[in-house]
Amino acid sequence: MTVPITLADIEEALDLISGRLHRTPLVSSRTLSEFLGTRTSLKLELFQKTGSFKPRGAFNELLHLSEQQRERGVVGVSGGNFARGLAFAGGQMGVTTRILMPEGTPAHSIEATRAYGAEVEIVPTIADAFARAETYADSGLALMHPFDDPYMMAGNGTLGFEVAADAPDATDVFVSIGGGGLMAGVATALKACMPGVRMWGVETEGADAMRRALDAGEIVEMQPTSIAKTLAAPWVCEATLAAARELLEDVVVVPDSAAFAALVFLLERAKVLTEPAASCTLAAAEALRGRLGEHVVLILCGGNASVDEIRAWSRQFG
Fold first, then answer.
1. C-alpha–C-alpha distance, residues 10 and 225, integer Å
2. Are 71 and 140 in contact (CB under 8 A)?
3. What is the three-class DSSP state of 104?
4. Which of 53, 98, 158, 314 keeps 20 to 30 A from 26, CA to CA?
5. Per-residue pLDDT tens over the stretch 32-69
6. Contact, 261 vs 273, CB < 8 A?
């Protein structure tokens, strides 16, 4: 299988979602440049509406539904950020949205999703959530997949256009992988605009479905255990696996402890509060220090971490 989206798909997505979301900044960091030994910039997607990149793909998915489908409503599956993104997009477009979330989802994610107007249903596991979503789809709701959808990938790819415009000389770009929808979109955009750029996928131990799939040569189902809840896809899909094979230099897996240490470093030195699913990109770049090119870009894809979570992680890793 080949990568399921093209540059034209991302350009179409950009036209559709333009004006609905922020164009997030890309800033240079002297502190991180000294730390990594090369010029380093941060793509601050954590300042996107709802605190992550997810509304980009959610809007593009919804805008490709028929009017009848939008009137019937939609259902989605998420352990956090896609729930917020889809709830926000649905609320903005007047689409009734139901989100299935697994037990153990942080309370602040559930509360925020409801606050954006979605109906939330808690189920035992993320796998149960996907199964339950298929039942709702059979009853007439449109299933909005958090990563296995070309419109989702193309919407996410608009972030790549922004990186290409603001850092045309980037040599290495680090992007997080949950199910792979962000990676597939961003890597497609950047490889088309900047063929020489090296794309690095990043996962955390216990949320490494892509690394396991690449090593096994096929999709592997797993039970996520990482503190990076927003990377906790129980599997990747054929489309994102194909994108990883074709577009990435490698997928770097870092321990939760390193992701948390990077979160603290970014907060104290760059003054941005990330979640582990975003700070892990810094941990991965640190692991590759000495192999990096002249301009590194870290995509900080989300910042939805609560004070209670940070306290708990500090006790665990402190």
1. 33
2. no
3. coil
4. 314
5. 999 999 999 999 999 999 999 999 999 999 999 999 99
6. no
Classify domain 7-53+150-317 at the CATH class level: alpha beta
Query: Which residue type occupies 26?
Result: L
CB-CB contact of 287 with 254 (8 Å): yes
Q: Which residue has the tokens 């899909």?
A: 237
24's tokens: 């997030």
The class (CATH top level) of 55-144 is: alpha beta
Q: What angle do CA 17, 185, 287 make, to 5 degrees?
A: 130
Task: List, for residues 102-159, the tens digit of each pLDDT value.
Answer: 998 889 999 999 999 999 999 998 889 989 999 999 999 999 999 999 999 999 999 9
Q: Report d(CA 304, CA 52) in Å as an integer.
A: 7
Average pLDDT of the chain is 96
Query: Concatenated DSSP letters for 245-265?
Result: HHH-SEEEEE-HHHHHHHHHH
Q: Which of 14, 108, 103 is nearest to 59 (CA)?
A: 14
Taking the alpha carbons of 255, 301, 47, 304 in that order, is the dihedral positive or negative?
A: negative
- H-run or E-run covering 67: helix 67-72
| Cβ-Cβ contacts under 8 Å for 253 (sequence gap 6 or more) | 202, 203, 204, 205, 208, 211
Residue 134: CB partners within 8 Å, gap ≥ 6? 143
Q: Which two tokens stand for residue 185?
A: 């979109």
DSSP characters for 195-212? TTPEEEEEEETTB-HHHH
Residue with tokens 């301009």: 295
Neighbour tally for 107: CB within 10 Å:
10
Chain region(s) in the chain for CATH 3.40.50.1100:
7-53+150-317, 55-144
| Distance of alpha carbon 51 from alpha carbon 274, whole angstroms | 9
